[in-house]
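== Folding task for one protein ==

=== Format: two labelled lines per protein ===

==== Paired sequence and structure tokens ====
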Amino acid sequence: MAPLILASGSVVRRTLLERAGLRLRVEPAEIDEVLPPDAVAGDLAGVLGLAKARAVAAAHPAAIVIGADQVLLFRGRPLSKSATRGAARRRLCELSGRWHSFVSAAAVVSRRHEEVVAQQVRVRLRRLTSVAIDDYLDSGEWRGCVGCYQIENQGAHLVAAVDGDLNAVLGLPLYPLLQALARCGVRP
């Protein structure tokens, strides 16, 4: 079987795939994540995931490569990661008590196959007090997260409801991805 490579440095994505019985190696893609101006908000994660998979596949033509990305949509617009604690505080205040969506996409690229799968999941945070927000920000988990919280860690305390597959909130449309991999002959 062709080697399987995850073009992402995400520990969570790697763990999800390994728990599903896949043996893989990790080689994070180094791409410029500038989005095409004509990209549709719901397609952004797929565009970026495919770019990552293609970049790593170019260096490993015999491999099957998985690229993944995630976009947070709030009120129909994509949000980017917050660079400062103040921006993270504003983000959590904005999301407090409200529904927002995560679109997680994964691309599978091999010599003979290219496929993108995606899932959209809605999440509602509970109504957060200033104290709850500040306590959470003190954890530092907000760094590097588009929603400024990690649902798999202490951020779980901020969540009121999840409508959809938790794996997609964690950053990987796991079940559609496993089906795409099976179409390439990849099984545990």
Q: What stands out?
A: Strands lie at 4-6, 25-26, 64-74, 77-79, 99-109, 114-125, 159-163. The helical segments are 11-19, 44-59, 85-95, 130-139, 166-170, 174-183. Residues 44-59 form the longest helix (16 residues).
